[in-house]
């Protein structure tokens, strides 16, 4: 299959898809990320093409160039989700599909706050400002890193959306939604990273959608 990865970053997931047998193309707005991806391709060639491009505009590829569009935790970081869906629809051949994951919009809200017991264990999640669509920049660090480590924080643009905006964005572009999932961390994952247990027991972290072009 000819597959394009929207928001491929440094290409780690793009390489995984290539290892499964797909003929991969990766696009990302960040020249530095694409530079890292191309270095990885140089060291371990998987015949992946990487280009600097925005998934919310014309990516520069011809109509009906791909069998599938994939995106892993990237589409929530773009300012125009409907435009991304229209571009995905344009790029797909009839019968092709899009499959993507994003932060779950019903739980990862601008007013997210954990409730904790006296020992600090999460017991619930406060969901607030669900309809607040004010864009903002989030600064964060990987939770598994030592708390006293002196590292530069990641800065990620956030464009809050509701669940219906994701579903309607897909449908209004012309796709037929065939699968919606809210995966839970496995018991094994929670043993390896105990902080995942809150997303297994209390709330959903990821929303996954697959849709086809007729």
From TrEMBL:
Q: Which GO terms describe its molecular function?
A: methyltransferase activity
CDD domains assigned to the protein according to its UniProt record, in alphabetical order: AdoMet_MTases
Q: Keyword NADP: yes or no?
A: no
Where the record annotates domain Methyltransferase type, the positions are 5-100
Keywords, ordered alphabetically: Methyltransferase, Transferase
InterPro entries membership: Methyltransf_11, Methyltransf_Superfamily, SAM-dependent_MTases_sf
Q: Which SUPFAM superfamilies match?
A: S-adenosyl-L-methionine-dependent methyltransferases
State what protein this is by name. SAM-dependent methyltransferase
């Amino acid at each position: 299959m000819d597959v394009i990865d929207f928001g491929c970053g440094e290409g780690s997931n793009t390489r995984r898809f290539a290892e499964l047998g797909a003929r991969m193309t990766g696009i990302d707005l960040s020249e530095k990320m694409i530079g890292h991806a191309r270095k990885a391709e140089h060291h371990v060639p998987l015949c992946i093409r990487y280009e600097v491009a925005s998934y919310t505009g014309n990516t520069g590829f011809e109509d009906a160039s791909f069998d599938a569009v994939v995106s892993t935790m990237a589409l929530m970081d773009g300012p125009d989700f409907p435009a991304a869906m229209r571009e995905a629809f344009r790029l797909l051949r009839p019968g092709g599909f899009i499959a993507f994951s994003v932060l779950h919009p019903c739980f990862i809200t601008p007013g997210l706050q954990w409730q904790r017991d006296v020992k600090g264990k999460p017991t619930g999640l406060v969901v607030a400002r669900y309809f607040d669509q004010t864009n903002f920049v989030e600064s964060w660090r990987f939770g598994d890193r030592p708390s006293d480590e002196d590292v530069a924080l990641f800065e990620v643009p956030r464009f809050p959306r509701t669940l219906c905006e994701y579903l309607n964005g897909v449908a209004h572009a012309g796709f037929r939604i065939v699968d919606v999932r809210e995966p839970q961390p496995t018991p094994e994952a929670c043993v390896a990273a105990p902080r995942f247990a809150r997303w297994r027991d209390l709330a959903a972290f990821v929303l996954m959608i697959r849709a086809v072009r007729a």
